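Supplementary notes (optional reading)

For those who missed the lab, this is the record we used. Protein: ABC transporter permease. Length: 332 residues.
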Amino acid sequence: MNESKKMKKSITLPFDENSRRLIIILVVLLFITGITKSSQFLNVGNVQSIGKQLTEYGLMSLGMGICMLSGGIDLSTVYIANLCGISAGLIIQSNTSGVAGIIFACVVALVVGALCGIFNGFLVSFLNIPPMLATLGSYELYMGISIVLSKGSTVSANGQFNILSAMTIFGIPLPFILFIICTIILTWIMSKTSFGNKVYLVGTNAKSAKFAGINVKKTTLCCYMISGILSAVAGLVSLSRLNSAKADFGTSYTMQTILVAVLGGINPDGGFGNIPGIAFAVIILQTLSSYLNQFPAISNYYRDMIWGIALLAVLVFNIYISKRRAKKAASK
């Protein structure tokens, strides 16, 4: 009993060893960029661009992280975001009531995201479909619905929704502030509430959690609902930034969200990791991506290969750390 309490305390700390390691990596990366590309990289315009670009897959990565902490995975985040963006775009197109119409479109998008997440959670928790297969099937469903709604074409917001991506507060892009707010809220939920503890326990051992009196199905359902809502927010940010939404936009984001979650210290088997680590991982990856853009000789075709190598390297490193931690625990 005492060991489980210790484990719960260690995994719900806002900043763990992995987060501190990521902060060091970020500082080193910024130091390198400052030396090699100081004028082109470390300027206000480029930093603001980084803040805008990371928000979309950053929000989806937070949702992916929540699902992975519960022992699952959500491969449909990108397609929920696209569906929500298309839904909002269609409402904005057909509505002439100005601000009220935009607010209504945002509410509809958030409701659609929540419902998609709940459906994913239902497939996983009540029908006991493996999370990977459940969300693989649902992403095809959501993409199909998006294609039907958009008639296979791009849905434009007609320039009526660009305020979200264009607005800055003290020079900080509003989308990035939104990402930070979501990170803070989720950090508090996962580290300071009973729901957060339940998620960690379900992810560690669902059967034990059930015997401990935790409603595993409800907890899992809530995790996927949160992921759906975060995807909806990402879809709205994308709609604002691009002034359009498309059924197959951002397909590469799926792998990036998994990479970010794992790099952020989330155990793919569930039960270990924290939210700040995901936020630091997002910032590191976007900073690295923007830095690579400064070198025309490096083709964008190498980008996926670099992300794949990084994902495998992080997985190997995390396995090594886990084994070393297990040996230390066994020797005590």
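If you only remember one thing from this example: Residues 1-13 have pLDDT under 50 and may be disordered.
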